[in-house]
Q: What sequence folds into this?
């Protein structure tokens, strides 16, 4: 399908990674991308896949591993270790970090890179956190971030029982 100056293309966002496009007010295409934005899928009105296309993404991170204790005494200090793979097209600089999505619980929101991480390499983070002073179940998830935004896979949810 081609578009010229007379054709109208209208986009409607459905969710964070699904949109519909209406062509000349008649036809509709659905466009969905994967979590990292690396692959785009285009479907027709009946839901048949028309195209799947891998795209180049300058910032892409894949979760590799995490070492997080499952229980901690309140106020105890623990070591957290995370690994994320750089799958994007640019080097991560020391301005990049692993950000805790539940940082308010831990009084710790971010761990910066100690050195640059080229495409294809794995970034390893190791740092200390202090368990909250009140007993309870506290979630912890991590995601890579640049100075502009978070990107890539989010680490699996780890719930830490503080006693």
A:
């Amino acid at each position: 399908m081609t578009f010229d100056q007379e054709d109208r293309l209208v986009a409607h966002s459905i969710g964070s990674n699904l949109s519909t496009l209406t062509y000349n007010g008649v036809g509709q295409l659905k466009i969905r991308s994967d979590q990292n934005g690396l692959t785009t899928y285009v479907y027709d009105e009946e839901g048949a896949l028309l195209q799947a296309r891998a795209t180049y993404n300058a910032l892409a991170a894949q979760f590799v591993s995490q070492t997080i204790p499952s229980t901690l005494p309140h106020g105890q200090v623990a070591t957290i270790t995370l690994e994320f793979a750089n799958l994007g097209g640019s080097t991560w600089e020391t301005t990049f970090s692993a950000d805790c999505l539940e940082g308010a619980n831990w009084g710790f929101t971010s761990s910066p890179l100690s050195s640059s991480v080229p495409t294809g390499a794995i970034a390893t983070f190791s740092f200390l956190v202090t368990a909250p002073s009140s007993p309870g179940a506290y979630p912890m998830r991590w995601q890579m971030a640049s100075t502009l935004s978070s990107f890539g896979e989010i680490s699996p949810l780890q719930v830490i029982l503080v006693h």
Observations:
- The helical segments are 103-106.
